[in-house]
Design brief:
This protein is of the alpha/beta class. The protein has eleven helices and 22 strands. Bound molecules: MU-OXO-diiron. MU-OXO-diiron binds next to helix 2. The site of MU-OXO-diiron has 8 residues, from helix 2.
């Protein structure tokens, strides 16, 4: 695709990756994605913000064919889907300087072997004049990795937001046309972020479409970050011989009878991205797992690892499942979630197939969760 104009002397460049189905070899991308770079021509200097994933390098380089001079390349984020083609861009424009945070400089040297003398590192809040346009660099560690920053184009009030506010959707739409679709994709890609108090008229992320009405996605992020968790139990589970499944089925009914919403994920078949989305705002996680080799099933351990990495605002956690002769399932899973500041509600583990006593215990657990959600007025 050719470069596309966003505003006067501001262009989208990059690539639409229709076929990509997995990100970081982990997160499913059912709708593909885009890698967005942006070219800004000031009256004196020209800057390219980010690049594209290396397999898409030729597309970016062909978009740059008519651009005779680039003075600066800005790397918001060292992950290769944005930085991977920067070495080729610098080879094409050998006088261009590469702007990054100090931390990103080290990572770009390590990951892409870019020479140190190519860099200019910038402090949080530092500005760069392009003549009649001014960039302000805002450090935003942990937008995804610890080195990330975003750029505010002062005169045009555009926030170039890196992975922040991004969504994985391959489309020919340059601007967001279907906010509902983007809401789901952005939630799937939601990461810990800091909200800015800048006067923002447009948000141009590194993935997905540009937001001409940024309040929509800012409000969504504010809700995901600051809003209370919902009256929902997320229930990732795996079952080997149906005992844990029987418990899950009974427990889901028991929760629903008590007015608690449930999002149930069979880890054998589930889309991990959907599970990650559900974790964003659920009040409680209950992991369903059989005991295998004296511990949780590896799929359940994977779900616990994911939850620990995403650090959702979950308040309560429990475990249900069946065992054959013993083991340390609860201790092992509890040890895998040090990042979650949760109250653990007594697990329900049963020996073999669940009995009436076990179903009663599941009623008790469902009642305890419903009570906790009511106490906190989760809706
Ligand atoms: Fe889109 Fe963290 O890279």
């Amino acid at each position: 695709m050719k470069a596309r104009k966003i505003k006067d002397r501001i262009y989208w460049m990059g690539s639409v990756d229709w076929d990509r189905r997995l990100f970081d070899s982990l997160v499913p991308l059912p709708d593909g994605t885009t890698y967005n770079a942006y070219l800004i021509e000031g009256s004196e200097k020209t800057v390219l913000l980010d690049s594209v994933d290396p397999p898409m390098a030729d597309e970016l380089l062909s978009q740059l064919e008519g651009v005779s001079k680039i003075d600066y390349v800005v790397s918001h984020h060292a992950e290769q889907d944005h930085s991977g083609t920067i070495p080729q861009v610098l080879a094409k424009y050998p006088d261009a300087k590469l702007i990054s945070t100090p931390k990103a400089k080290g990572m770009l040297v390590d990951l892409l072997q870019i020479p140190e003398e190519s860099f200019i590192t910038v402090k949080d809040g530092e500005t760069l004049s392009l003549g009649d346009k001014t960039l302000q660099f805002i450090h935003a560690p942990w937008v995804h990795w610890p080195e990330t920053m975003v750029t505010y184009l002062e005169e045009d009030k555009i926030l170039f937001s890196c992975d922040f506010f991004g969504s994985h959707i391959a489309t020919t739409d340059l601007f967001v046309a279907d906010e509902g679709r983007v809401y789901e994709a952005a939630k799937r890609y939601f990461a810990e972020i800091k909200l800015t108090s800048y006067d923002i008229e447009m948000i141009a992320p590194s993935h997905g479409q540009i937001y001409p009405r940024p309040s929509f996605i800012i409000d969504a992020y504010r809700d995901w970050i600051l809003g209370p968790p919902r009256n929902t139990v997320v229930l990732p589970y795996v079952s080997m011989h149906e005992s844990t499944k029987q418990m899950v089925d009974y427990f889901v009914s028991a929760l629903v009878e008590r007015g608690v919403r449930v999002e149930q994920f069979n880890l054998e078949v589930t889309d991990i991205g959907k599970l990650a989305m559900a974790l964003v705002d659920a009040a409680t996680i209950v992991v369903g797992t059989p005991t295998i080799l004296a511990g949780p099933h590896p799929y359940a351990a994977y779900a616990a690892f994911l939850a620990n990495a995403l650090r959702p605002k979950t308040k309560f956690l429990s475990i249900i499942g069946s065992y054959g002769w013993g083991g340390k399932t609860v201790e092992t899973l509890a040890g895998m979630i040090p990042n979650l500041k949760v109250e653990v509600i007594d697990p329900v583990l049963c020996k073999g197939v669940p009995s009436e006593v076990d179903f009663k215990a599941l009623d008790g657990l469902a009642g305890a969760i419903a009570e906790k959600h009511k106490e906190h007025n989760f809706v």
